[in-house]
Amino acid sequence: MASSRPPRRSIDGILLLDKPLGLSSNAALQVVKGLYNAAKAGHTGSLDPLATGLLPICLGESTKLSAYLLDANKRYRARVRLGVRTSTGDAEGEAVASSDPGGLSRERLEAAIPQFLGAITQVPPMYSALKREGQPLYALARAGIEVERAARPVQIHALTVLSFDLPYFEFEVSCSKGTYVRTLAEDWAAAVGQQAHLAALRRSGVEPFDSGAMVNLERLRELEAGAPRDALLLSPAAALRGWPALTVEMDLARRLAQGQTVRVAPAAAGLIASGLIAVYDLQQRLLGIAESDGAGLVAPRRWLQRAENPA
Predict the structure, then answer these.
(1) What number is the average pLDDT over the span 143-163?
(2) Is the pLDDT of residue 83 over 70?
(3) Contact, 68 vs 171, CB < 8 A?
(4) Separation CA 89–CA 303 (nearest Å)
(5) 267 CB contacts (<8 Å, ≥6 apart)?
(6) If you write DSSP's letter for every residue of 146-157 in order, what string do you get?
(7) Is there a catalytic annotation at residue 48?
(8) Tens digits of per-residue pLDDT, 189-209?
(9) Considering the chain, what percentage of its residues have pLDDT values greater than 90?
(10) pLDDT of residue 142
(11) Domain annotation for the chain: domains and CATH numbers
């Protein structure tokens, strides 16, 4: 018996989802993919089920850009419970250590901020998706197994205390990919002689996106399928906002699409530095990502095949 389900849509775009509490990133992705009946979808960096906020979901050709969003800087707002450290680093775990935060002041907490700014190292928590011999660490942790983890370098660009009301405080952090905010909260508390865990976490930024255009699942479900729902999608080009850019004519666009390295005019070559660049056609439609040698040679690296490509 033939299926009555309509064929998957070849739809391209980026949805800035406000992921709800209690839902995994993959589960949220599957809901969005189903609502759009999209043939292809991917998210750009997991949020724990107990975290909420910005989860860019890429549909169709936009999935080719998701790796670049994975590498982007992130911004979070966290609420920390002082006085108790848990097995998971958040409110889901069991208490494993305690302290008395009664004598801690906001000034002392803020005085410890400089040691966490810039390039720092973190030991990843056992309750993380990192793998050891094919096994995610959280699976080992749930089995009561703890293994040694190497410290990893991360960057903390900004760290600010937003509120202080014992036994809680809230902070905002802007950081590189790979930063564990749970670990940051624990290490920061330890620096002032305290135990702590995350009580809540919300992501408010994934460069170049902020939380202003987020859409929650309730709103998404309310809208009719088709144009009303599609209108929430950002263009794939939005993911590369702020990138060095190159505009090319049709002939060069076709050669790049065929995988050829091309030489651009001296005037254009003088405007683009070496490294990855966004390439557009004369109508300012995104064609893909290329790499420039800074001297006029441009090689395609990730190319879009429809939607924003010239006919």
Answers:
(1) 87
(2) yes
(3) no
(4) 40
(5) none
(6) ------EEEEEE
(7) yes
(8) 999 999 999 999 999 999 999
(9) 72
(10) 73
(11) 13-72+209-238 (3.30.2350.10), 74-206 (3.30.2350.10), 243-303 (2.30.130.10)
Catalytic residue among 12, 18, 48, 187: 48
Q: How confident is the model at residue 309 (pLDDT cuts 50, 70, 90)?
A: very low
Token match 């800087």: residue?
73
Q: Quickly list DSSP for 102-140.
A: GG--HHHHHHTGGGGSEEEEEPPPSSSS-EETTEEHHHH
H-run or E-run covering 205: strand 196-206
| 224-230: long-range pairs with CB below 8 Å, 24+ | 225/35, 225/36, 225/37, 229/35, 229/36, 230/11, 230/13, 230/36
β-pairing verdict for 168-175 and 74-82: antiparallel
The one-letter code for the residue type at 252 is: L
Supply the pTM of this predicted model.
0.88
* Beta bridge mates, 53: 19, 203
Q: Which residue has the tokens 């903390």?
A: 156
Which of 115-119's residues contact partners 24+ apart within 8 Å by CB, and which partners? Answer: 115/191, 116/156, 116/159, 116/184, 116/187, 116/188, 116/191, 117/156, 117/157, 117/158, 117/159, 118/155, 118/156, 119/153, 119/154, 119/155
What is the chain's length?
A: 311
Q: What is the CA radius of gyration of the chain?
A: 23
SS3 241: coil
Nearest to 278 by CA among 291, 266, 267: 291
Are 94 and 86 in contact, with CB atoms under 8 Å apart? Answer: yes
